[in-house]
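sorry for the late reply, my laptop died twice this morning and i had to redo everyting from scratch. anyway the thing you sent over, i finally got around to it. pasting the sequence first so we're on the same page, its 264 residues, then the predicted structure underneath. double check i copied it right bc i was rushing
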Amino acid sequence: MNTESLTPAQFIQHHLVHWQFDIVNLKVGKSSEFLVVNLDTLIVSFFLGVAFLSFFYFIARRVRSGVPGKLQNFLEYSIEAIDGVVKEVFHGKSQLIGPLALTIFVWVFLMNFMDLIPVDLLPRLLSFAGVEHFKSVPTADPMMTFGMSITVFILIIFYNLKEKGGFGLLKEILSKPFGWYLMPINVIFRFLEELVKPLSLALRLFGNMFAGELIFILVAVMPWWIQWLPGGAWAIFHILIISIQAFIFMMLTIVYLSMAHEKH
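ok and here's the structure:
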């Protein structure tokens, strides 16, 4: 679709639609069905994940003693920085948490960074291949953020059972924090506490990134000769936002998993 012929309202609406796969009708394109897969989110997030893992693997295969190169310095600094944060926050023992925290931070940062690419660049390029709609920021898609938060939630349940056992976890749910006499209130509080964890992870990241994407779309509606001023200012400020949101998602994941290891 030629976006130049669209009104501002149509332009904004056009850029808020995902490239979808309709599971019910087995059809690619915009769909109103409930069972759909956002292909743009899957493709971009998968590509970024493979790219960053391949990049780290490439550096790790060329690690040498003595005077390290710039890429090796970057890799070592990244690992040491994340490892330092994990040691300060995580109070249990697990070989998974450090690599998980590093993966989350880098992957979420890269997905957030896609928001700095001009909103019309990828959609216009892919339009030559017949793709009508394409959103290039995976973390501006609630399906992506909820998918990651549910994965963290499953890990929380796993570590709760692993560290406390089924009976110990049940005892904790029924008796904490107000004792056995207020068992119903304990259960309600625990249910709300566990429900808030994936919701806070998913909605915080989605809300910030969707708002940032929407601002860039609004800037793109402006006349070309004025776009650089608000667009440039917002892009500089948005670099801070995408970094902070990646760090917050990583930190909350570590905190929640640390809580799952603790016995009250």
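The two ends are 58 Å apart (CA to CA).
thats about all i looked at so far, will dig more tmrw
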